[in-house]
Specification:
The complex is a heterodimer.
Chain A: H1 2-32, E1 33-34, E2 56-58, E3 64-68, E4 75-77, E5 90-92, E6 97-99, E7 114-116, E8 138-140, E9 147-149, E10 162-164, E11 169-174, E12 193-197
Parallel strand pairs in A: 3-5, 4-6, 5-7, 7-8, 8-10, 9-11, 11-12
Antiparallel strand pairs in A: 1-4, 2-3
Chain B: H1 3-39, H2 57-60, E1 64-67, E2 70-75, E3 82-84, E4 98-100, E5 105-107, E6 122-124, E7 146-148, E8 155-156, E9 170-172, E10 177-178, E11 194-196, E12 218-220, E13 242-244, E14 266-268, E15 290-292, E16 314-316, E17 338-340, E18 362-364, E19 386-388, E20 410-412, E21 434-436, E22 458-460, E23 482-484, E24 491-492, E25 506-508, E26 513-516, E27 530-532, E28 537-540, E29 554-556, E30 561-565, E31 578-580, E32 585-587, E33 602-604, E34 611-613, H3 617-620, E35 627-629, E36 634-637, E37 651-653, E38 658-661, E39 675-677, E40 682-683, E41 699-701, E42 708-709, E43 725-727, E44 732-736, H4 739-742, E45 762-763, E46 766-767, E47 770-774, E48 777-781, E49 790-792, E50 797-801, E51 814-816, E52 821-823, E53 838-840, E54 847-848, E55 862-864, E56 869-873, E57 893-895, E58 902-903, E59 906-907, H5 926-936, H6 941-956, H7 960-991
Parallel strand pairs in B: 2-4, 3-5, 4-6, 6-7, 7-9, 8-10, 9-11, 11-12, 12-13, 13-14, 14-15, 15-16, 16-17, 17-18, 18-19, 19-20, 20-21, 21-22, 22-23, 23-25, 24-26, 25-27, 26-28, 27-29, 28-30, 29-31, 30-32, 31-33, 33-35, 34-36, 35-37, 36-38, 37-39, 38-40, 39-41, 41-43, 42-44, 43-49, 44-50, 49-51, ...
Antiparallel strand pairs in B: 1-2, 45-46, 47-48, 58-59
Classes of the chains: A alpha/beta, B alpha/beta.
Chain lengths: ~210, ~1000
């Protein structure tokens, strides 16, 4: 009985702490972006959890599951703190003016289903850590200025249904193995330095177009 | 021998003649003075009583001194004279050299005839009620050395003729209402040693010519409206010991040349608009005892040369924009008693050397960006009475050595990042009256030794991480009036000894883990005005001794585990403004005595187990009561019907009780009502349309009652102008959705894009709260954002179509029309709800296709269209990629992602931006083509760009023409798509 009670307290504490961690993580994003239309005006860090903030959705345990900020005129950087949103399924930040690189910590969002960062000004490389997003179904990074290779590790994403990395400055070869076997060139077009589909066994992956 | 008597006789004759004329003149002078005396309002004044025609003016009159029989000095200062100078015999006193009429009640103006007193050396009219201007004739007083007119009501300008008074050594015109600028002619007064023009309305700049006054010892132009910069010529005034220019509008930088004034002991340039940096040359002013540059816009760092000013007693540079480090050289200023550097941008750490300033009584470095730890050397400053280091970034622990500062009365280290525990040595500071350590990271327990601080008046340790229990020794602090320990981790009981704090007026212990019941001694705290104990684990009953606290204004016990009934005698605390005991385990009925609390503004007993009726008398309280919150209790019976005209009621929350009957019409008297929450009861009535004119109503929840009938309104202007949250769900409302109501609701028609910080309903004493259904879950809003906008009409019996006009309510975040009998199409206008996050139209009879326009809803996080009769292709792009099949289930005619692999031959959901411009034959307008391409850019993610931009434009502006074009375009897209589908379908069929 007592153990059960203690366990409950523990779970309760854990939930409370998590709520604050998630609120803090989101608030870190607020601090890192410029928000001319004040779409983040409701993001009040003094609240117990972020579940009543606009553009944030929680599950019944008050854990953040969605962040919907597409077309919100945000500029500035993504923050590594986003990686703390353990139950985040949808990260929709498309059509903004976000700059800088995609934090590798995004790869820690183990519940993520959809990562939509298309039509921003993100630069740097696609973090190979995204290959840890085992539930990922949609990955759209098109319309940025991303460089480097399409990480081959992404082919491990068995649930991936949509990938769009077109209109970037990627280089190297398009991976073709794993879940990538079903994607058309459409998903990779307009990357002038990206060479055609990788010819398995003939060309070494780490050559071509990336020097 | 003959010569001597002859000479004698001639001398005698001469002197006789002389005396005769003189005594004659004196009589005339005396008579003229008597005439003046006759005009005084209190001529029988005890002092002037000696002024009689019968007596000898030169010998017997008060304040009159003659020389050679002629009146030479008139000294009637401080003689309570009431009168004017209009009859003063200026022309009859030709030998007058000294006049002192100061400190009387002389009013009226200075007559121009004053210029006749050409022998005057000393004129003092100060501290009277003299008004009017200074007559220019004053310039005739060419021998005058001292001219004192201060503290009168003189107005107008300073006549330039004062510049003729070349003998002047002291000129004092301070504390009048003189305006205009300082005449440059003052530069001629080269003998001047004191120039006082302070406390006037002088404007313009300080004339350069002041720099000619080389004999000047004191210059005070303070408290005027002087502007411009400080003339560099002041650097010539090498005899100057006092320079007071404070409280003006002087701008520009402090001239380097001030550094030449080596005799200076006082330099007060504070409260101006001076900018630039502090000149290092000030380091030459080695006689300086007071240096006040505070309240300016000075920037740059503090020059290390200030450290040469070894005579300095007071140094105040506060309220500037100084940056950089505090120079260690300040440690040389061993005579310093006051060091005020607060409200600047100083950074770096506090130099150890400050510890040498053993004469220091006040050290204030607060509100800077100082970091590092507090140097232990401060423990040497044993004369210190004020130590204020608050609002910096100081870290580390509070040094033990602070305990040596036995003269300290005021210690403020609040709002820093101090950690560690509170040193027990603070218990030595027995003179301490204010101890503020709040908003730090202090941990450990509150030392027992705090109990030695018997002079303590205010103790604030709030917002730290202190644990352990409240030491019983606090009971010794019998002078304590304000005790704030809130937002810590304090546990254990509130000690019985708290009852000894008889001076206590404010007790704030909220948000800790205090448990146990109220100590019985609480009733001794007769001066208590504020008891704020919310968010603890207090148990047991509220002791009846609480009712002894007749000074009480606020009682906040919410979020504890208190039980028992609400004391009847609480109704006797007549000054009570606020009583919040929500979220406890209170039982029984609400005592009727509460209605006697004639000042009560906030009453919140929500979330308890109270039962019984809400007495009619609560309606009568609405004259002063602003908040009446009883939500989540077991109250029964009907609502009070006695809400009064002129009601103050702002928030009425009775959600979640067992109330029945009708909604009282008298609520229409509550014109200040912002929140009306009657949800989750058993009310049985029609929709209270008579609430529609309440000008401030922002939240209306009637959810889950037995309300019925249709929503017909009276068709008047401006219905529910501020309403933003309306929840009528789970009732039996029927008929069509109220189109005419949706035409109003002004507040739902604008999106606030200017407010940066969140604003909530309520104030710092009470937050309104509500539970709303959004995104498929119940969401508790502990505070209601003023911009939260929702319409929930779900689970009723509404029928007919969804009015297209709902698309005008663009501020909506939540729209729930589910579980009704709605028919027809989903209006494409819903695509204008650009901030909607939750859209639930499920369980209706809706038919037709899902409008493409919904793709523009880029904030949409929850969509439920399930269980309708929708058909056709599910729109794609933007948020639609994120909805799963449960959003659409129960519609047999829907196709495409996510319910099926594709829609027609279009491959969905791949982001292959299918080119729609296949066959463009029926394109009638080039413009439409271009526009279409620009707006729609493609099928997938591109579509939402165009649509969302376009809909944003439509929803914010009044672009009717554009809306028409878009309408046509939409049609066109759909037509094309159908056509293409048809084409492909036929091709495929042909192939087969």
């Amino acid at each position: 009985m007592a153990i059960c009670f203690l366990f409950h307290i523990f779970v309760l504490l854990l939930t409370l702490t998590n709520a604050n961690v998630e609120g803090d993580a989101l608030y870190a994003l607020r601090r890192a972006v410029n928000d001319p239309d004040n779409v983040l005006q409701s993001w009040d860090p003094t609240l117990v959890d972020p579940c009543t903030w606009f553009h944030v959705t929680c599950d019944s345990e008050n854990r953040v599951t969605r962040l919907d900020l597409g077309n919100a005129k945000l500029s500035g950087n993504l923050v590594p703190e986003l990686g703390k949103l353990e139950r985040l399924q949808y990260l929709e930040l498309y059509m903004n003016n976000l700059v800088g690189s995609i934090p590798a910590e995004i790869g820690g969002l183990k519940s993520l289903v959809s990562l939509d960062l298309y039509h921003n000004n993100l630069s740097g490389t696609i973090p190979p850590s995204l290959s840890k997003l085992s539930n990922l179904r949609i990955l759209r990074l098109n319309g940025n200025t991303l460089t480097g290779r399409v990480p081959r590790e992404l082919t491990k994403l068995a649930n991936l249904k949509i990938i769009d990395v077109s209109n970037n400055d990627l280089c190297g070869y398009i991976p073709t193995s794993g879940s990538f076997s079903k994607f058309t060139e459409e998903s990779f077009k307009n990357n002038p330095r990206l060479e055609g589909p990788e010819l398995m066994g003939f060309v070494r992956y780490d050559t071509g177009g990336c020097n | 021998m003959m010569i001597v008597p002859k000479f004698f006789s001639i001398f005698q004759l001469f002197s006789f003649l002389y005396l005769f004329t003189v005594s004659f003149a004196s009589t005339k002078e005396a008579t003229s003075l008597l005439k003046w005396k006759a005009t005084l309002h209190n001529q029988n004044n005890s002092l002037l009583n000696s002024w009689r025609p019968s007596s000898n003016a030169c010998r017997d009159w008060y304040g009159v001194i003659c020389f050679n029989g002629s009146i030479n000095r008139l000294n009637i200062t401080n003689a309570t004279i009431f009168g004017t100078l209009y009859e003063f015999p200026f022309s009859s006193l030709p030998f007058l050299e000294y006049v002192d009429l100061s400190r009387n009640n002389i009013s009226g103006t200075i007559p121009p005839e004053i210029g006749n007193l050409t022998n005057l050396v000393y004129l003092d009219l100060c501290m009277n009620q003299i008004s009017g201007t200074i007559p220019p004739q004053i310039g005739s007083l060419s021998k005058v050395q001292t001219l004192r007119l201060f503290d009168n009501h003189l107005n107008g300008i300073i006549p330039k003729e004062i510049g003729y008074l070349r003998s002047l050594t002291k000129l004092s015109l301070g504390t009048n209402i003189l305006n205009g600028s300082i005449p440059a002619s003052l530069g001629n007064l080269t003998s001047l040693s004191f120039l006082y023009l302070y406390e006037n309305y002088l404007s313009g700049s300080i004339p350069e010519e002041i720099g000619y006054l080389r004999s000047l010892n004191q210059l005070s132009l303070r408290n005027n409206s002087l502007n411009g910069s400080i003339p560099a010529s002041l650097g010539n005034l090498t005899s100057l010991s006092d320079l007071r220019l404070y409280d003006n509008h002087l701008s520009g930088s402090i001239p380097e040349e001030i550094g030449y004034l080596r005799s200076l002991t006082n330099l007060d340039l504070n409260t101006n608009s001076l900018n630039g940096s502090i000149p290092a040359s000030l380091g030459n002013l080695t006689s300086l005892s007071i240096l006040c540059l505070y309240e300016n816009h000075l920037s740059g760092s503090i020059p290390k040369e200030i450290g040469y000013l070894r005579s300095l007693n007071q140094l105040s540079l506060r309220n500037n924009s100084l940056n950089g480090f505090i120079p260690a050289s300040l440690g040389n200023l061993t005579s310093l008693s006051d060091l005020m550097l607060y409200e600047n941008h100083l950074s770096g750490s506090i130099p150890e050397e400050i510890g040498y300033l053993r004469s220091l009584t006040s050290l204030d470095l607060s509100t800077n960006s100082l970091n590092g730890s507090i140097p232990a050397s401060l423990g040497n400053l044993t004369s210190l009475s004020n130590l204020r280091l608050h609002e910096n970034h100081l870290s580390g622990s509070i040094p033990e050595e602070i305990g040596y500062l036995r003269s300290l009365t005021n210690l403020d280290l609040s709002i820093n990042s101090l950690n560690g525990s509170i040193p027990a040595s603070l218990g030595n500071l027995t003179s301490l009256s204010f101890l503020y350590l709040y908003q730090n990271h202090l941990s450990g327990s509150i030392p027992e030794e705090i109990g030695y601080l018997r002079s303590l008046n205010q103790l604030s340790l709030r917002n730290n991480s202190l644990n352990g229990s409240i030491p019983a020794s606090l009971g010794n602090l019998t002078s304590l009036s304000d005790l704030r320990l809130y937002e810590n981790h304090l546990s254990g009981f509130i000690p019985e000894e708290i009852g000894y704090l008889r001076s206590l007026t404010n007790l704030y212990l909220s948000t800790n883990s205090l448990d146990g019941s109220f100590p019985a001694s609480f009733g001794n705290l007769r001066n208590l005005q504020y008891i704020i104990l919310d968010a603890n684990n207090l148990t047991g009953k509220i002791p009846s001794s609480m009712c002894n606290l007749t000074s009480l204004k606020m009682l906040n016990l919410e979020r504890n585990n208190l039980n028992g009934e609400i004391l009847q005698c609480l109704g006797n605390i007549s000054g009570l403004l606020l009583m919040k005991i929500s979220q406890n385990n209170l039982s029984g009925e609400i005592p009727s005595s509460i209605c006697n609390l004639a000042s009560l503004q906030i009453l919140d007993f929500s979330r308890n187990s109270l039962k019984g009726p809400i007495l009619q008398c609560f309606g009568n309280m609405s004259g002063h009561l602003e908040v009446f919150d009883m939500h989540h209790n077991n109250l029964s019976g009907t609502l009070p019907t006695t809400f009064r005209v002129g009601s103050s009621l702002r928030s009425l929350n009775l959600n979640g009780n067992d109330l029945e009957g009708e909604i009282p019409q008298s609520l229409a008297n509550c014109k200040k009502l912002q929140v009306l929450n009657l949800g989750d009861n058993h009310l049985n009535d029609k929709f209270p349309m008579w609430l529609e004119t309440l000008p401030d109503l922002q939240v209306l929840s009637l959810r889950s009652n037995k309300l019925y009938g249709s929503l017909k309104n009276l068709m008047i202007e401006n219905l529910f102008p501020k309403l933003r949250i309306i929840d009528l769900s789970y009732n039996a409302f029927s008929g069509h959705l109220p189109t005419s109501l949706f035409q109003h609701l002004k507040a739902m028609r604008t999106i606030d894009r200017t407010t940066k910080a969140p604003r909530y309903l309520g104030d710092s004493y009470y937050d309104d709260s509500i539970t709303i259904a959004t995104k498929g879950l119940e969401l508790e809003l502990d505070r209601i954002l003023t911009v939260y906008t929702t319409i929930d009409l779900s689970s009723n019996r509404f029928e007919g179509q969804i009015p297209s006009i709902m698309g005008d309510l663009i501020a909506l975040r939540v729209l729930n029309l589910s579980h009704n009998g709605l028919q027809g199409h989903i209006p494409p206008s819903l695509g204008s709800l650009s901030v909607v996050e939750s859209l639930d139209l499920s369980f209706n009879q809706l038919s037709g296709e899902i409008p493409q326009q919904l793709v523009a809803l880029t904030s949409l996080a929850f969509l439920s269209l399930s269980h309708n009769h929708l058909r056709g292709c599910i729109p794609q792009g933007c948020q639609f990629a994120t909805f799963e099949s449960n959003s659409y289930e129960g519609n047999d005619g829907l196709r495409g992602f996510p319910v099926s692999k594709g829609c027609g031959n279009i491959l969905i959901p791949e982001t292959n931006y299918t080119d729609y411009a296949v066959d463009d034959q029926e394109s009638t307008s080039e413009f439409f083509n271009e526009f279409w391409k620009a707006a729609l850019m493609g099928y997938g993610s591109g579509l939402c760009i165009g649509l969302s931009i376009v809909y944003f434009m439509i929803s914010t502006g009044n672009l009717k023409w554009l809306a028409r074009i878009i309408g046509e375009l939409e049609n066109k897209i759909i037509m094309r798509r159908r056509k293409k589908q048809a084409l492909q379908y036929s091709r495929r069929n042909n192939r087969i």
